[in-house]
Amino acid sequence: MSAATSGAARFSGSMSDSEADDLMAVLKVAAEHAGKAILAYYAEAEEILVKEKDDKSPVTEADLAAEASILAFLAKLSPDLPVVSEEQASEGKLPTVGERFWLVDPLDGTKEFLQRNGEFTVNIALIEAGRPIAGVVHAPAMAMTWAGVVSAAGNGAEPGRALFSQTDQPSMDIRVRDVPAAGITVVASRRHGSGEALDALLAKYSVADRVTAGSSIKFCLVASGRADLYPRFGRTMEWDTAAGHAVLAAAGGRVETVEGAPLTYGKPGFENPFFIAKGRV
């Protein structure tokens, strides 16, 4: 842990390859530990207790257990860095953020969790100067983890390093793919996957296939070359997108507003505009 911690402690967009690997390893441990807390509830035969937040979205004991696990981990890893986490934010507990801070969604896809379809994730991202420079997306029920650290350049020529792993299996590098001759694959939310804005956007492309997925897995499908475009014309918060954004950017992709500007973080209220996540489209 000491080597990994020293790599993480730099919190810089100019990390060496070994420091980037160390940081991804640390974040993977944090996310997988939170994932085990979630699965303890997921495996229960009895109905899971659900409460409704002010924004009408659900929260469960699993959300809170995962958040407590991650917050305790980050407090030891980086006691001086603020953490913006979804459930604390829903209670009005928002720290003042500066150049660097953490964004956490302890259980992204609570509805997927409640439906027990497996498509829910743990998301942890490190933000520097408004952009995600490192992140991990862990899908506990699927035993899958995606992690990425963005290079200082942060461009297509030198994006960074992104990894995919299944529990107890070696990690493998992932990259966005070239667009197939047959056309692009579009991934969309199970609940926000249609509408006039989406249809107008897709009319500009040759679309070979459309798939649906829950939570931040959509970013990871683009990052790993299984899809090419993820448009989102619905409400999201920064903690929903930051970790997946980091993985995609590290794999050579990008996330832009519908006007074509980079999606940034640390905005007032932490709410995102509509955005489009892209591979090599």
Key features of this structure:
single chain, alpha+beta, Fructose-1,6-Bisphosphatase, Chain A, domain 1, 32% helix, D-Maltodextrin-Binding Protein, domain 2, 3-stranded antiparallel β-sheet, 2 domains, 281 residues, 7-stranded mixed β-sheet, 27% strand
Could you characterize what this model shows?
The chain is of the alpha+beta class. It has two domains: 2-173, Fructose-1,6-Bisphosphatase, Chain A, domain 1; 184-278, D-Maltodextrin-Binding Protein, domain 2, CATH 3.40.190. The chain contains eight helices and 14 strands. The protein has helices at residues 2-9, 17-42, 61-77, 86-90, 110-115, 196-202, 217-223, 238-250, and strands at residues 50-52, 58-60, 83-85, 100-108, 121-128, 131-139, 144-150, 160-166, 172-173, 184-189, 207-213, 229-232, 254-257, 275-278. It has a seven-stranded mixed sheet, sandwiched between helices. Strand 6 and strand 7 form a beta hairpin. Helix 1 crosses helix 2 and helix 7 runs parallel beside helix 8 (238-250). It is globular, with a radius of gyration of 17 Å. Residues 1-9 have low confidence and may be disordered.
